[in-house]
């Protein structure tokens, strides 16, 4: 079988970077790269994500991606926007700008909307309903912006949050970032979307 070269970039915050994973291979980027390798791609992975980033910080990451000729970018962002109470409209506008630049450079994009932050252990139970509503609002804004800019939306939050809400082992010791097991669960949910995006790009070029 002929293999296809694929330049993959992970853009966004600590989830895209892999904070909390026990080792580099346990992070999200290498897990997605491994799945794409299994699906017939020769993957060149660049992790451009920065821990602590909010959506407004994507501009710098997209600028770093420009000379790499990225084929497929996976954008994971929003958790810090929620934690810092960034208005959803402001986050969405920043995401739209980043996606427009990526698409103009010929990069296909998979957007992973913000996680449901109400499952994070340190969120007080009394505040969880409000945090869940805020998370859902940002997710909707992000999904709408992604679709308007021709990106694929990986709407995995419900499935992922259900697991994280019931299994403390999916969180790392800081009780905020995923553990290696948590990243394995997130990657499992994302792989069908990322592989589908890679296949769509390959088929369009055929």
TrEMBL record:
Domain of life: Bacteria
InterPro entries named among the record's database cross-references: GDSL_Rv0518-like, SGNH_hydro, SGNH_hydro_sf
Ranges for domain SGNH hydrolase-type esterase: 10-184
PANTHER family cross-referenced by the UniProt entry: GDSL-LIKE LIPASE/ACYLHYDROLASE, PUTATIVE (AFU_ORTHOLOGUE AFUA_2G00820)-RELATED, GDSL-LIKE LIPASE_ACYLHYDROLASE, PUTATIVE (AFU_ORTHOLOGUE AFUA_2G00820)-RELATED
Protein name according to UniProt: Lysophospholipase L1
């Amino acid at each position: 079988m002929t293999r296809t070269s694929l330049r993959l970039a992970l853009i966004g915050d600590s989830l895209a970077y892999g904070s909390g994973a026990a080792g580099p291979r346990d992070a999200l980027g290498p897990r997605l790269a491994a799945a794409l390798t299994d699906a017939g791609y020769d993957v060149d992975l660049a992790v451009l994500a920065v821990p602590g980033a909010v959506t407004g910080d994507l501009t710098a990451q997209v600028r770093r991606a420009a000379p790499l000729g990225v084929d497929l970018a996976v954008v994971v962002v929003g958790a810090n926007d929620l934690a810092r109470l960034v208005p959803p409209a402001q986050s969405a506008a920043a995401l739209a700008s980043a996606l427009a630049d990526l698409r103009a450079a010929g990069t296909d994009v998979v957007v992973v909307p913000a996680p449901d932050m109400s499952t994070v252990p340190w969120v007080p139970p009394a505040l969880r309903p409000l945090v869940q509503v805020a998370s859902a609002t940002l997710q909707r804004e992000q999904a709408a912006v992604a679709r308007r800019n021709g990106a694929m939306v990986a709407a995995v939050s419900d499935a992922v949050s259900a697991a994280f809400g019931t299994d403390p082992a999916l969180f790392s010791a800081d009780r905020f970032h995923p553990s290696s097991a948590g990243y394995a669960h997130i990657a499992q949910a994302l792989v069908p979307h990322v592989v589908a995006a890679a296949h769509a790009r390959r088929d369009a070029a055929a």
